[in-house]
């Protein structure tokens, strides 16, 4: 197994972060510091991170959280802001978020100790439907809705076509349900701003077939076996 995958599977961090830790010289195998990505490790090898032995966990944990606005989707925040892990009281296993939700965005966030799965779900080649409930300032025109559906230019690149449904409208606001297939930074907010309508509120409702459902804001629950199996079936897992 590749060293970075081994570390991720041990719950140290996501695959990408583990690659950084290796390059920084923080990982050793059998007493030797390793800074070469892709180094193969065997079951009987002694792997250390920050001078502490790390071993494969026998069982990973998987959760969904209904993230409130006002929390950072990181393990630690350099500005000392509250993180999503502050909401995961009672979880003893080391876990980390799968992808990100903006500070002011709420809704469905997955967290797990399974670094390999996290990597597979956040891989740039990975495309899965993500549905959001969006409240916009202003009454959105049909022309703007059509632009969102066909794709708009953000960060010098056009977005893929999106599914856009009008939930309700009044003179001051429009509520939309938007489904996208990419995972670009602040994508929904940038798409709506590109057609002239700032986002007032943004909430993620689902990732693929995983639904937020009736989970209350700030609460979390363990994923069912069926949900975990589904995520593994859609993740891009590299060969070891």
Task: Identify the notable features of this structure and list them briefly.
Alpha-Beta Plaits; 240 residues; four-stranded antiparallel β-sheet; single chain; Structural Genomics Hypothetical 15.5 Kd Protein In mrcA-pckA Intergenic Region, Chain A
Number of strands: 15
CATH architecture of the largest domain: 2-Layer Sandwich
| Overall average residue pLDDT | 92
- Give the full name of the CATH homologous superfamily of the largest domain: Pseudouridine synthase I, catalytic domain, N-terminal subdomain
Structural class: alpha+beta
CA radius of gyration is: 20 Å
SSE pattern: HHEEEEEEEHEHEEEEHEEEH
What would you call the quaternary organization? single chain
**Span from first to last CA?**
5 Å
> What is the C-level CATH assignment of the largest domain?
Alpha Beta
Query: In the residues, how many domains can be counted?
Result: 3
> What is the helix fraction of residues, given as a range?
10-25%
- The poorly predicted ranges are none
Shape: elongated
Pfam family, one: PseudoU_synth_2
Keywords: Isomerase, RNA-binding
GO molecular function, one term: rRNA pseudouridine synthase activity
EC number: 5.4.99.-
Structure, explained:
Helix content is 21%, strand content 28%. The chain is an alpha+beta fold and 240 residues long. The chain has three domains: 3-54, Roll (Structural Genomics Hypothetical 15.5 Kd Protein In mrcA-pckA Intergenic Region, Chain A); 62-125 and 210-234, Pseudouridine synthase I, catalytic domain, N-terminal subdomain (Alpha-Beta Plaits), CATH 3.30.70.580; 130-207, Alpha-L RNA-binding motif (Alpha-Beta Plaits), CATH 3.30.70. A hairpin with a 2-residue loop joins strand 1 and strand 2. The longest helix has 10 residues, at 225-234. The model has no long low-confidence stretch (mean pLDDT 92). Residues 1-59 form the RNA-binding S4 domain. It is an enzyme of class 5 (isomerase).
């Amino acid at each position: 197994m590749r060293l970075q995958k081994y570390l991720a599977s041990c719950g140290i961090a996501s695959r990408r972060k583990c690659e950084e830790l290796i390059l920084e010289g923080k990982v050793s195998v059998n007493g030797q510091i390793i800074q070469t990505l892709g180094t193969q490790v065997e079951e009987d090898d002694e792997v250390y991170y920050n001078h502490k032995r790390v071993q494969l966990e026998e069982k990973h944990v998987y959760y969904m959280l209904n993230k409130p606005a006002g929390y950072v989707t990181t393990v630690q925040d350099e500005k000392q802001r509250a993180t999503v892990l502050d909401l995961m009281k009672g979880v003893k296993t080391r876990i980390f978020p799968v992808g990100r939700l903006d500070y002011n965005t709420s809704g469905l966030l997955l967290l797990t100790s399974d670094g390999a799965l996290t990597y597979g779900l956040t891989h740039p080649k990975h495309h899965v439907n993500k549905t959001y409930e969006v409240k916009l300032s202003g009454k959105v025109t049909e022309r703007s809705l059509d632009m969102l559906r066909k794709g708009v230019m953000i960060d010098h690149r056009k977005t893929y076509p999106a599914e856009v449904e009008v939930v309700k409208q009044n003179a001051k606001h429009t509520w939309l349900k938007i489904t996208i297939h990419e995972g670009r930074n602040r994508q929904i907010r940038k798409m709506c701003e590109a057609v002239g309508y700032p986002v007032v509120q943004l909430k993620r409702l689902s990732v693929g077939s995983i639904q937020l459902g009736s989970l209350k804001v700030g609460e979390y629950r363990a994923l069912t076996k069926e949900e975990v199996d589904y995520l593994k079936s859609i993740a891009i897992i590299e060969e070891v």
